[in-house]
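Q: Structure tokens for this one, please.
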Amino acid sequence: MRFSRPISMKSTRLSSTIFLALLIAWLFSFCKKTGTSTTDSPFRNVRDSVAYVGMATCKSCHANVHETFQHTGMGRSFDHATLQKTAAKFGPQAVVYDSLRNFYYHPFFKDSVMYVLEYRLENGDTTHKRLEKISFIVGSGQHTNSHIINENGYIYQAPVTWYTQEQRWDLAPGFKVNNSRFGRWLTDECITCHNNLPEQMPGSMNRFSKMPTGIECERCHGPGKLHVEEKLKGIVVDTAKQTDYSIVNPRRLPRDLQMDLCQRCHLQGVAVLNEGKTFYDFKPGMQLSEVLNVYLPRYTDTDEHFIMASQADRLRMSECFKQSKDLSCITCHQPHRSVEITPASQYNAACVKCHQPTACTEQAATRASKSDNCASCHMPKSGSTDIPHVRITDHRIGLPSAASALQKKAFLGIQNMTSPNPSPLDMARGYLATHDKYINSPVMLDSAAFYLAKSTEKPERLLPVKIHLLFLKEDWKGIIAAAKSMPKDHSDGWTSYRIGEAYFNTGDPQTALSYYEMALQHYPLHLDFLEKKGAAMLALKRIAEAKKVFENVLRENPKRPVALLNLGYANLLTNNLPLAEKLYNQALALDPDYEQALLNKAALFILQGKKAAAKGLLERVLKLNPRNSQAKEGLLHL
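A: Here is the predicted structure, written as tokens:
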């Protein structure tokens, strides 16, 4: 019997349920773009040579605007976890229970520091405790407050959220179905919408050296150094008569570029970066498609149901938008002033430009009860499909209507929201990203394969996408065959990692190691990749080197169960049983349901002759997973 072994990340498993028929011989199209690129934009601060100056510099001349902006949702979007920042209520009643994974969560403040305590009760006893400090609170508190853990610069989402409108704590969005506990890492894709421009550590996915506290002026106006330099030189433009092209004024942009600016964050979907681009590359005045494409899954009931950050998409669906040449987000919204204090008359003023109040067919008494607020009828509040316990304004302007007849919800495909004519390769990448981030379904992979087969791009552009598809299908032999055509100097760390996984899973850790090391050349602080490298070294019996790799991971982040487990196994192989047991215990303190750690600890107990203790651990594994063959085998031998 041998079930003590190094562990590596499991590859994505395919669902056994196949959706109806393979989509899609048709492409969604979108509105035509007329915008400019960075090279021909009249706003000179869009150029890459122009630096950011920070909000404090802007405030020195625009103090009045800064003062009101600080009270907007954007101004309050992100900050340190303090009692002043939170909108939540605390106390003994602030407890959330995850019935699927049997964990309780208790958020609380102690000595002005916020914590979340995770614990488990079994037969009246507390059998597990894990305490995590909260470093940041995300959200203005108008709808929610979510929470972020900072572990040596590596940031993760905490599993609980405060839902303001219902005045309740609950699991964070998405955690009810898949509670990743304290392991959901937050990348620049997330942070650069909820915050300003953090400084990300090169070669990492979720480690940051500097974290701002809220959206700042230059996110909507672009880098400010050129503007500041010209003002200091006395170059002043009378903006009442002409445009100051030293800095972007969103009102002076064409409508499509105004929309691109807003939908950088108010069009939540599946964002896929263009090759060579980062989430820091988009600037006001650019077309969003210069940097990334955004995809949304579409269903037969898309017109009726929507996700929370879909304001740009919903507005585009409106007849008002389609029939107008200039209606955009800032027609109604003053970004420097909070929506909470904006009077209804400001929004109504936009409506009456085209619609006379006398045309309203609603009864006068009803209109009076709603203060003649057009939006209350034509943009009603509704729940979202992705965030529980919230009600938001539906930005699809329309006539009030009775609920439509119930129909079976069916998937139609994904729509590229940022490019009018996406290429087959773009669509293939969109389907793979949708599978990774949103809908883990074989139909996504089938659709990606469909578009990949239609693409006529050069092989060097196709191969990384093909390997990504084969990786999600766990077609290891297919990846190895495809990898033979990859140039040795390719610059894609994720492709190297996926090829490494193919070799590791087909019993060739030596070749796998070479590809893991290639991946780490691009992402030296990707801790999952480092753990893979260590696992390959263990398989090659390069124990001392593997130990150094896992010790390096734990210096970066000491709360890595995989690294603790494998370092424990490395010490077991060198006969340091006490240290092996200590490391296994540390892994289980972080994750009491970590099956491989329970198995490895049981094997250690067997070596020490502690058969009763080993039996208890194996039975615990089978309680968690009755199909675990290693635990069944271990019990048979006991």
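A few notes: The chain has 25 helices and 18 strands. The chain has three domains: 44-50+219-352+374-411, 76-214, 441-637.
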